[in-house]
Amino acid sequence: NASFMPGLFGPAALSGGPGSIWRIDGATGTVRLFANVAFDGVPNSGPALGGLAFDPASKSLFVADRDTGMIHRFDLDGKELGRYDHGVQGRPAAGLPPVPFNPANRLDITKPQFQTANPATWAYAPPPRRIFGLAVRADRLYYAVAEGLQIWSVGITANAFGTDARREITVPSGQSPTEISKIIFDDLGRML
Questions:
Q1: Contacts of 187 (CB under 8 A, 6+ apart)
Q2: What is the pLDDT of residue 173?
């Protein structure tokens, strides 16, 4: 009879869930649902979302889906404009084998296999396709991949993702497992 704690992903009365993006009105402070990230109509099963990045040139919001490993693109009204699949689109561009999305990998906290203290049972996308940190700079979307602590990028236009994915950098591993949750650029264009 396990269930997620009420309000864990935002107000249920406002249709909040693990794939919810919320918007706060800067003038009134009103909170409303911006979008629910889903894959072909199937909602996020619980691993939730990673980083967000805004592209002022195209007025697009990008979000990493920790459930599927996809990067979704939304307009300012919360309408999905497309998605990018690093596992199938990015990896082959660097000569790596594709790692497709497995729709059977769904989180079910009612199953005995789920263990609250064991992230391996939380149904995250596998490391070669698991995305977290995102940033936009100079018509490219930069994204962090869990496998090997890598930062990749792909070109973006006003309405599409490019076909020019490339690995930008591999960050040395720490003493314990970790992921890159944030990517930013300073005023000189240095990645932090």
A1: none
A2: 86
